[in-house]
Design brief:
homodimer, alpha/beta, Rossmann fold, 15 strands, about 40% helix, EC 4.2.1.20 (chains A, B), aromatic amino acid biosynthesis (chains A, B), pyridoxal phosphate (chains A, B), Tryptophan synthase beta chain (chains A, B)
């Protein structure tokens, strides 16, 4: 039998991240200062982010950014992650397609988020910053940053979306085990939170709101910076380590993917798995399809507008050119908490606009059905977020079967679901629904966008 | 920098398990039929276990038992597991000791239990058995067997110790995701359960009780067999894959352990990590210390009696010669649910009696303190069971520091704690205690043993 897992050694951990912007003919439009509406410069971002991260955010010329040795060293705690040939799933689907997944769930916090958390904590520490803040949706990012902040000796405050704070109490405990402070958002600890609670006391929170709170705290705390787990260019940059490893591993398997799939919230794991493959297409090399799988309840890529919008609920962040449902869109309380974000990162948005990537929206019930098939055939219970990618991969494999042709499919298993079993319980109990949106609902939330710039 | 993880390839998965009994000068005393009190034969065990498992249970001559190819194939889903040099923990302890751990937590169900679950389900399937039953304490074994039963297409009923059923609801959900039926034990579904509930309606269950129920169901269901996740010889046999891999990996690291440590419940992970190293000592090779770390609330190896005793609460099982606290000992509700068992496997008991292995008992609060130090220094949140081994390893490392000498320590990280965060929460909230036993309590529970044979 062939190997199931295609493994690299610690020496094979990439030495640079891939900055796709350098290869894009149409660069993303610049982020704008929310007050002046002028293109941002590094100095505008420095009060919020560590300087090196601000530089990476606006770097559109350097194709490769060297990974500092202390980051590579900490990556060795779990990287390189395995690439797995999904023989069990192929058999269950009776498909001629070859299905591979990159297994980021082997990270000690259970998801890919650690790849950027380690980098961000490192650059903050190097600059002498002592305190950091962040937001978290499902808790995956918060857990990862807690791990990294603890390692580098930084104090961390995490604003956790209220719905997840209650649905996923154990992710909160994980953050606390690593020593982080966790606050349910919206909270009364910030102006932004108090305003939202006053207007809507029962609001269960969103990533947009939690970002407002975390940014506000960072700006009002000495020697403190904010960090973000998705959406931004520097986060996508760090996550390219996923695809760079996967590229080597596909080569070892003697195959090249026809399609690469990632679930889509703000874009971090999708960018991570796809950008290194897309670089060949951008530079005239091999063609490939890239598919973002987003929830039908939060369909910014498939049904949103491409406009300048705020990254947060209240409007503290720069204006970003992106596919968005509007910064005050309140997504339904689906269990894939990490995908409940109103906008797509600016790089992905530009690539989508230019036809380089595709998007599909997936209904919540379909994702759980796909997750259980995957658990039974491959043995790993996936995170509800990752199940969106699994569903899309299954569709691709079934299409290949219908067409009777071989196809090579690669998707990113961004995390496992062992801390999400309450969500599975609710699915088994028939308590979940799809939360699809009507055209009126979409129009209502996006209509205000034209007035922003 | 050196590699942190020492990795083997799928081809390096051992082709045989190691049967230590073949190398023991003093073989364990024979298990006795509970009715006739005569030594058991394979035919006595066949109504309960698959025939091949019954043969393995009583095999005291074959040193190596070949691993069937379909089992090795399924092992590839997560094996070989990494051996990790715990640089972070060494630094935190400022010790000259080199600390290694075998990371069994990377299995898709989060623990080493899958190693035997896969083997047992396979042999049942091969024999044409359609239904299996089992018990589970913390849920680790039940989750593993659910995974394996699903893979081989067997129907599975799991009796889960009531305290864990409530403390660890997500382990239950994991079993259900793989398609198993889960019943809280003691239950009203068996005579054994009804008897116990009648006598003590608030009893929170124990492994001994759950075993009685699972065996009873197996004996009363057509084409059904019982399976067990620890204690028995064939389980220890399957788990030796841990130590066989670790031995190769230590060789790759250029070191040989001075001491090997495993937490101790019934013996499965302890036997697994230690027996392959002990084989050299038994056959006149290199000396080595082997340490079993058991809970102070359930100290059979350190404070129990070596006597014939039943494996279960009610007395359905054969009489086994072992260190025991008495089959009706009701252990305190500690969070290391997998270690709440009254007896030690017969092989380990004989080895302990003959001075080949040592045992230490560890207080619950000390295990959580060790767990948090491990989480912060190595990044992995350990299962409460595994934290007993971590505590013992830390003590060895601190002793090395005190004595100012190098020492190589290997322990088994039998599982991660991501599904045990409720236990960590209770520790943080100061709700846990040590549940140490007085000499009177020990005497009271072991005094009846002398009358059994």
């Amino acid at each position: 039998m062939m190997n199931k897992k295609i493994l690299l050694s610690e020496n094979d951990i990439p030495r640079s991240w891939y900055n796709i912007v350098a290869d894009m003919k149409n660069k993303p439009l610049p982020p704008l200062h929310p007050g002046t509406k002028k293109p941002l410069e590094v100095s505008d971002l420095e009060p919020i982010f560590a300087t090196e991260l601000a530089r990476q955010e606006l770097n559109d010329t350097d194709r490769w950014i060297e990974i500092p040795e202390p980051i590579r060293e900490l990556y060795k705690n779990y990287r390189p992650t395995p690439l797995v040939r999904a023989y069990g799933l192929e058999k269950a689907l009776d498909t001629p397609a070859h299905i591979y997944f990159k297994n980021e769930s082997v990270s000690p916090v259970g998801s890919h988020k650690l790849n950027s958390a380690i980098a961000q904590a490192y650059y903050c520490k190097e600059q002498g910053i002592t305190n950091i803040t962040t937001e978290t949706g499902a808790g995956q990012w918060g857990a990862a940053l807690s791990y990294a902040a603890n390692h580098f000796g930084l104090d961390l405050a995490v604003y956790m979306v209220k719905i997840s704070y209650h649905q996923k109490p154990y992710r909160r405990s994980i953050m606390q085990t690593y020593g982080a402070e966790v606050i349910a958002s919206p909270s009364m600890s910030t102006k932004a939170g108090r305003k939202i609670i006053t207007e809507n006391p029962n609001y269960q929170g969103s990533l947009g709101t939690a970002i407002s709170e975390a940014v506000e705290l960072a700006l009002n705390t000495p020697n403190c910076r904010y960090t973000l787990g998705s959406v931004l260019n520097h986060v996508s940059l760090h996550q390219t380590i996923i695809g760079l490893e996967a590229e080597k591993q596909m080569e070892m398997a003697g195959e090249y993917p026809d399609v690469v799939i990632g679930c889509f919230g703000g874009g971090s794991n999708f960018s991570g798995i796809t950008f290194p493959f897309l670089r060949h297409k951008l530079t005239g090399g091999k063609d490939i399809r890239l598919v973002a799988a987003e929830p039908a309840s939060c369909p910014k890529l498939t049904r949103g507008k491409f406009e300048y919008d705020f990254g947060d609920e209240v409007g503290y962040t720069p204006l970003l050119p992106m596919y968005t449902l509007g910064h005050n869109f309140a997504p339904a309380n689906i269990h894939a908490g990490g995908l409940r974000y109103h906008g797509a990162g600016t790089i992905v948005s530009q690539l989508k606009k230019d036809g380089y990537i595709e998007a599909v929206d997936v209904k919540q019930l379909d994702t759980f059905e796909a997750a259980i098939l995957f658990a039974k055939s491959e043995g790993i219970i996936p995170a509800p977020e990752s199940s969106h990618a699994i569903y899309a991969a299954i569709q691709e494999a079934l299409k290949a079967k219908e067409e009777g042709r071989q196809k090579t499919i690669l998707f990113n298993l961004s995390g496992h679901g062992l801390i999400d079993m309450a969500s599975y319980d609710r699915y088994f109990d028939g308590e979940l629904s799809n939360h699809e949106l009507s055209d009126e609902e979409i129009a209502k939330t996006t209509d205000m966008l034209e007035k922003l710039v």
